[in-house]
Design a protein that fits this description.
Mean pLDDT: 78
Oligomer: single chain
Number of strands: 0
Largest sheet: none
Order of helices and strands: HHHHH
Region (Disordered): 1-62
Pfam family, one: DivIC
Structural class: mainly alpha
Coiled coil: 108-135
Biased composition (Polar residues): 9-19
InterPro entries: FtsL/DivIC
Shape: elongated
Length: 176
């Protein structure tokens, strides 16, 4: 202790102000002081009520409420059963509708793929038909073998378009 007092006495006023008096960074001497282990704070216990008739009534009331909560009478069990069956029915119905929708979507996808295939085949056939037609050959057969000729200007008659967008012929076409 005496060594500590001498060391602190030799310090200047500014050095003592820098370090708090309670904290020592260096301990002089050959043995460190024995520190007492810190005791853990004890939790405060609530004050006990005197064992009177009031706590007995309170415990009896709690026990009775717990028994009522655990007691299930017949109407309660019936309602719980009905609710469970109804919930199960809704779940099964939901799964059935969902699987039906999934099956329909799969069927639609299959039909769309088939439609695309048919369109592709139709386009290929139309292209092959259009490339196989030789218009010069048709003109040659029509003019030479069948004796067909182009119409002259005076042979062409024009009619006004009617509401039904086509012409019905009820009598012979005049020749003038």
């Amino acid at each position: 202790m005496a060594a500590r007092r001498q060391a602190s006495a030799g310090r200047t006023h500014t050095q003592t102000n820098r370090r708090p008096a309670q904290r020592h960074d260096y301990v002089y001497g050959s043995a460190a002081p024995q520190l007492k282990p810190q005791e853990a704070p004890r939790p405060e216990r609530p004050a006990r009520k005197p064992a009177g008739s009031q706590s007995v009534r309170h415990n009896h009331r709690i026990r009775r409420n717990q028994e009522r909560a655990l007691y299930m009478d017949l109407p309660y069990v019936i309602m719980l059963t009905i609710a469970s069956v109804f919930t199960l029915y809704l779940c099964i119905n939901y799964l059935h509708v969902q699987s039906s929708i999934t099956a329909r979507m799969h069927h639609i996808e299959t039909m769309e793929a088939h439609l695309e295939k048919l369109k592709a085949e139709n386009d290929a056939l139309e292209t092959s038909i259009n490339t196989s037609i030789d218009l010069n050959k048709i003109y040659e057969i029509a003019t030479k073998e069948l004796g067909m000729v182009y119409a002259k200007k005076n042979q062409v008659l024009l009619y006004d378009k009617t509401e039904s967008e086509y012409v019905r012929q009820y009598e012979d076409i005049p020749e003038h």
